[in-house]
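We emphasize that the prediction below concerns an isolated chain of 78 residues; any contacts that depend on oligomerization or on bound cofactors are therefore not represented. The input was used exactly as deposited, without trimming of termini.
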Amino acid sequence: MEKVIKARFLEGVFKPLERVELEEGKEVTVTIKEVPKETRDAFELAMGGWRGKIDCENLIKDIYKSRQLSAKRPAVEL
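Result of the prediction step, given as a token string:
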């Protein structure tokens, strides 16, 4: 069985932060990967990255214009 869990290291012991289904005394291998202090996801970190670089009002107008053009295409006959 392989499972990834979060644990906290306190007083020299790893303490699981979630329930672990193991029999008492079972030997396991532990791989340590430190969680960075900043745990926000990439999407949150990217918020505001385009601010001041794109005119949002014009972008929205362009999107609506392109949708109108594609709606005027002739119907395809089979």
